[in-house]
Amino acid sequence: MSLTTKDVARLADLARLDLSEEELTTFATQLDVILDAVASVSHVAQQDIEPSSHVVALNNVWREDVVTPSLPQDSVLAMAPASQEGRFRVPKILGE
After folding, report:
1. Rounded to whole angstroms, how far apart are CA atoms 16 and 9?
2. Cα–Cα distance for residue pair 44/19, rounded to 1 Å
3. Which end of the chain, N or C, is more open, meaning fewer C-beta atoms within 10 Å of its C-beta?
4. What are 10-24's pLDDT values in tens digits?
5. Averaged over 16-43, what is the pLDDT?
6. How far apart are CA 31 and CA 28, in angstroms?
């Protein structure tokens, strides 16, 4: 599949990019190379190979969930610039 400068101009328009004719020609050539590379990968992929997101299998490392005492509320709030009703007081955002 070969991209034309008209195809690239349409993509640039969708991305709200203002490209010159020279840039359209350059990008058309570069995008052709990228599309060819992607197409060659799809030819290599066989039906018996399961798609994966990583080359190496990932295993999550879990730690034991142990309840430990936390800092006392009064000492934590003592370090805060402002507190109210046992909570940190912060400025309103987004007009809430």
Report:
1. 10
2. 35
3. C
4. 999 999 999 999 999
5. 90
6. 5
